[in-house]
Write a structure and sequence with these properties.
Elements lengths: L14 E3 L3 H12 L4 E3 L6 E5 L3 H11 L8 E3 L3 H7 L5 H10 L4 E6 L6 H4 L4 E5 L4 H10 L3 E2 L14 H8 L5 E3 L11 E7 L2 E6 L5 H5 L4 E4 L29 E6 L2 H9 L6 E5 L11 E3 L4 H17 L4 E5 L7 H11 L4 E3 L1
Parallel strand pairs: 1-8, 2-8, 4-6, 5-9, 10-11, 12-15, 12-16, 13-14, 13-15
Antiparallel strand pairs: 2-3, 3-7, 4-7, 5-6, 9-10
Helix pairs in contact: 1-6
Bound molecules: threonylcarbamoyladenylate (TXA) and magnesium ion.
Length: 349
């Protein structure tokens, strides 16, 4: 076991904690003493540190191999906690919080100086989210401070939605992980910023959709980078995370936008050693090529996509042809992750 209360613990083997009260106390005490602990949220597992502790946050960047200019989300459990770290909060943010928090929505707000620069990558704004997962909430409350947490994957690889995914990426790099089972949403939160008093811009699509947001604010703009197949390195972006290649397994991923007949035709002309297809459950009957499935509706696809991308690597797949999800509702979030996993290799067939 680790020496409780010490400044750092051995990184040799990641400590796996359960969601029992005593284990959550251990997780909180590790965090209070400046360690990094992976925690489950309803979206994906997060790599958490005390957001007010610069060294602990630096250790998060180091464990992930994340570029310093890509800022982190701070996770809170109350509006009062948000108000301690953000200022000039628009009224519409409170209406959104009322409707969607706790839950998978992240709001970019002007930061107070108490938020260390390392958290925000030097920006004058801070991303705030109130998660709904009981484990994450309990640990934030035990620590008594917001937890800065990016997804708990190595930078660039698919986000983790199970304990095993976290262990595969983080063993030897962080102190501990808490097992919270499989994440129910499966893709990261919707990230929004405020373009005006009653106007928000979606910077990263997630489970909370544009239509959901429109019920609360007058105007919802979908940032052009979300659906773009132009590599954003060459463009200006509003959120640093947009410009990095993301979510990629080692396998080459090709995203094919087609009905199932068009998809089969496209793949038939490209059969090669080590190829595998990722199709909808309902496409599987008599499917003539090597395949995996990822559900049939957008919610199921969101929940399964990162597991399937990781599974492709475990199976030694060389090229993964993915039948694209729908581009609306929650499907937009899945599509957005897949164009990045595919390194913008998207074909219409
Ligand atoms: O569901 C989630 O959001 C998960 C769980 C753990 O909460 N977290 C997550 O964090 O996905 P991360 O770090 O992988 O993604 C945060 C995204 C990045 O694209 C980052 O660039 C953007 O939010 N972001 C953070 N702070 C920002 C800011 N001040 N302005 C613009 N974008 C920001
Ligand atoms: Mg991430």
């Amino acid at each position: 076991m680790y020496p409780a209360g010490s400044d750092s613990v051995s990184m040799k083997d990641i400590i796996c904690l359960t969601d029992s009260d005593s284990d959550l106390e251990k997780a909180a005490s590790l965090l209070k003493s400046g360690n990094v602990v992976a925690l489950p949220t309803e979206t994906v597992y997060g790599l958490a540190a005390d957001a007010t502790n610069r060294d602990a946050v630096a250790a998060v960047f180091a464990a992930k191999g994340r570029p310093a200019d890509n800022p982190l989300i701070i996770h809170v459990t109350t509006l009062e906690m948000m108000e301690q770290y953000a200022e000039d909060i628009p009224r519409s943010a409170y209406r959104l919080a009322e409707k969607f928090w706790p839950g998978p929505l992240t709001m970019i707000l002007p930061k107070k100086s108490i938020v260390p620069e390392i958290v925000t990558g030097g920006l004058d704004t801070v991303a705030v989210r109130m998660p709904s997962h009981p484990v994450m909430r309990k640990v934030i409350d035990l620590v008594g401070k917001p937890l800065a947490a990016p997804s708990a994957n190595l930078s660039g690889s698919p986000s983790p939605t199970t304990l095993k995914h976290v262990k595969d990426d983080m063993n030897g790099r962080i102190a501990a992980v808490v097992d919270g089972g499989e994440c129910t949403v499966g893709v990261e939160s919707t990230v929004i910023c405020f373009d005006g008093y009653d106007s928000v811009r979606i910077l990263r699509p997630g489970f909370i959709t544009a239509d959901d947001l429109r019920k609360v604010v007058d105007e919802v703009i979908i940032d052009e980078n979300i659906l773009s197949d132009v590599v954003p390195e060459v463009k200006e972006v509003r959120s640093p995370g947009m410009k990095y290649k993301h979510y990629s397994p080692a396998a080459r991923v090709v995203l094919v936008c087609a009905d199932i007949e068009g998809f089969k035709k496209y793949v038939a002309s490209r059969k090669e050693a080590g190829m595998c297809c990722l199709i909808y459950d309902k496409d599987a009957q008599n499917f003539p090529f090597n395949y995996m499935t990822y559900g049939s509706d957008s919610e199921e696809q969101a929940k399964q996509i990162f597991s399937r991308l990781r599974e492709a690597d475990e199976k030694g797949v060389k090229t993964l042809y993915v039948r694209a999800p729908k581009k609306d509702g929650v499907g937009l979030a899945v599509y957005n992750r897949l164009i990045r996993a595919a390194g913008y290799e998207v074909v219409e067939s």
